[in-house]
Amino acid sequence: MSELGLGDIAGSAGDRGAERRAQPSHRKLLKSKGSRREDRAAYAFLLPWFIGMAVFTLGPILASLYLSFTDYTLLSPPEWVGLDNFQRMLDDTRLHKSLVVTFEYVFVSVPLQLSLALALAMLLNRGVRGLAFYRSVYYLPSLLAGSVSIAILWRQIFGGDGLVNQLLDVVGIEGTSWIANPDTALGTLVVLNAWTFGAPMVIFLAGLRQIPASYYEAASVDGAGPVSRFFRITLPLLTPIIFFNVVLQMIDAFQNFTQAFVVSGGKGGPVDSTLVYTLYLYDRGFGSFEMGYASALAWVLLVIIAVLTGVNFLFAKKWVFYGD
Amino acid sequence: MATDTMLPAGPALDTPAERPPGAGSGGRSRRLGKHALLIVLGLAMLYPLLWMVSSSFKPTETIFRDPSIWPRQVDFDNYTEGWTALAHPFHFYLWNSAVVAFFSVVGNLLSCSLAAYAFARLRFRGRAIFFAMMLSTLMLPIHVLIVPRYVLFSELGWINTTLPLIVPKFFATDAFFIFLMVQFIRGLPRELDEAARMDGCGHFRIYWRIVMPLSLPALATSALFTFIWTWNDFFSQLIFLTDPNTYTAPVALNSFLDGQGESAWGQLFAMSVVALAPIFGFFLAGQRYLTQGIATTGLK
């Protein structure tokens, strides 16, 4: 199962720990010129990464931590304001709305997308003729969906006289503008995310392929039907892949920006119903240049994602099955 | 590590799985039913795309009345008018996007493969810690870094240039590709390196002459994804390119939508189709690498 590279993220934290523990003794034994030369070579290979890490990743993370305690508009130097930005968040009703919208989006669209992905992977797994073709067709939207072009298309499709309503009209139903209605606007983005089930589906397919056919044979001999085979064999053995997909797609969904931005014309409307977190962050930072507040928002996002991922890993112990 | 044996052998993904016993028991009609379901679903998935392409050939008024994907007449006006509807002709924006994408690909391939070689093949002090650091940045959203990066780049005078979009790629900031290449290189036989070492080859030569040529599939996957991501990227381009004279295709499309509003859907669709075309082309050309790539690391 962990032949998929994702074992490294999902499963083998223990492996890495073991490796680290093993290293000192290994070092002592081999503390020759050769190993020091290997150190030097490695650091040379890693030089671009070291610089990038310092200048473009760690530096900015620390800088944004500092800025989150300041008032900063780019025009004058940052001014220390202590916890003001975080205090402000407590009373910021738009932020609260934005959090609700984001969580709603993540917790509805990810399960929907992953259920579709798993269902289709199951359908395609059973030696279907033309598998490669179907897989490509279902996968294509995942590549395109992040683009402005598709967001523009979505805005038309779910508009007042868009494609959806034209098709509904054919069967005699009169639709409203799904984009302009605050009750349905976020739903159009959920549908857009569900449309990208192809990427996790390909991951599921790769995972299903790792389950030995002999397990199914044995189960059949014991008289297990397709339903019990699914729940007793497929699902348990697939849990590491499900877990990986959940973590990945959740983090991904938290970062949805383009679609919400374009579909709502950059405003997160109607009445903030599509104001996802990153859109609000953009609005504070680059709409009104409140860089201090935007930095504080960025840090809160980092904490939210870290906590959710941590919770995922914590719960993983309860339901993810690693076989060995 | 269990992950050492991932996927270099591509065909695994393309050969149909062994049939679990009982799968064929439903017989012919069940199989046909399944194909019917798969085809209907596939059509439903592609319908919006096909309809957009078809609508780009329709006059704008009919876009709002005609849900069919066969245009009644084919008309290139949307393309010719849309091409020149903005301050610059559309190929100006496409060129800017292409420049960003090209240098991003070059940067990612060079810097990420260097780092990946070190992680996959060399034993050095701090390896475990650095590797863990690299993995933890896999999940780091760009939104967390964007404000300080913006401040940094505006201090450097790089706003409204392509530098903020390109330069970080030369410093291995896309950890996904390091991860992907590490996984791949670990799967390559070490005997070749060792033989080369016996012959007195240094690490750089082993990297350049042996490991890189063998890693072509992983490099192709990384190149394709880098291209698609930078071509589609909107967030950072919107932030770093505020002068219409520096717009890339996605930012230009967005300003087209803002400016013309909904009165020019035909032209908007036409230019959207043009902007999607390169991705579609690379998808057709490199499907194998794409599906392998996401099966390895969950890239989208």
Structural summary, described in words:
- Chain B: Belongs to the binding-protein-dependent transport system permease family.
- Chain B: It is a multi-pass membrane protein.
- Chain B: Keywords: Cell membrane, Membrane, Transmembrane, Transmembrane helix, Transport.
- Chain B: Residues 1-29 are annotated as: Disordered.
- Chain B: The chain crosses the membrane at residues 36-54, 92-116, 128-146, 166-185, 206-231, 264-285.
- The complex is a heterodimer of chains A (324) and B (300).
- Chain A has one domain (85-319): Orthogonal Bundle (MetI-like fold).
- In chain A, a hairpin with a 7-residue loop joins strand 1 (70-71) and strand 2.
- Chain A has a two-stranded antiparallel sheet.
- In chain A, helix 14 runs antiparallel to helix 15.
- Chain A is mostly helical and 324 residues long.
- Chain A has helices spanning 7-10, 13-29, 33-67, 84-91, 93-125, 131-144, 148-157, 163-170, 185-194, 198-208, 213-221, 226-254, 258-263, 277-287, 291-319, and strands spanning 70-71, 79-80.
- Chain A starts with 6 loop residues before the first helix and ends in a 5-residue tail after the last helix.
- Chain B has one domain (83-297): Orthogonal Bundle (MetI-like fold), CATH 1.10.3720.
- Chain B has helices at residues 27-55, 60-63, 77-83, 90-121, 127-137, 142-155, 163-166, 175-186, 191-198, 203-214, 216-232, 235-240, 249-260, 265-297.
- Residues 1-25 of chain B have low confidence and may be disordered.
- The longest helix of chain B is centred in the C-terminal third of the chain and has 33 residues, at 265-297.
- Chain B is mainly α.
- In chain B, helix 3 packs across helix 14 (265-297).
- The interface between A and B is large, with 124 and 118 residues.
